[in-house]
Amino acid sequence: MKSQQLTAEQISRVIEMAWEDRTPFEAIQATHGLSEAQVITLMRCEMKASSFRMWRARVSGRKTKHAALRSPKVTRAYCYSQYKPR
């Protein structure tokens, strides 16, 4: 699995992106190369069971987590002010 090749910082970023309501799985795949199934597996391995269940309940069926279900008016995956300069 590709997540074994990710650094701790990258894994942390994938988890952060997965928790964000408006970041679709397609954006995670574009930036980190992980499919939705791989993100789910990574989340299951990296989180406590109760946190994973809470996350799955949160993202299941959420239109904003899938680009194909989003409104065509949404042309980006995140807010421009979301990322802080390093």
Which helices and strands occur, and which strands form pairs?
Blueprint: H1 8-19, H2 25-32, H3 36-46, H4 49-59
Summarize the structure.
With 86 residues, the chain is mainly alpha-helical. Helix content is 49%, strand content 0%.
Mean pLDDT: 80
Measured by DSSP, the beta-strand proportion falls in: under 5%
How many domains? The number is 1
> What kind of assembly state do the chains in view correspond to?
single chain
Number of strands: 0
Tell me the major beta sheet.
Answer: none
Which residue ranges are poorly predicted, with pLDDT under 50 across at least 5 consecutive positions? none
**Tertiary shape:** globular
- Rounded to the nearest angstrom, the distance between the terminal CA atoms is 29 Å
Structural class: mainly alpha
Radius of gyration: 13 Å
User: Helical amount among residues, as a percent range?
Assistant: 40-55%
Number of helices: 4
Order of helices and strands: HHHH
Pfam family, one: DUF2805
Protein name: TIGR03643 family protein
Organism: Pseudomethylobacillus aquaticus
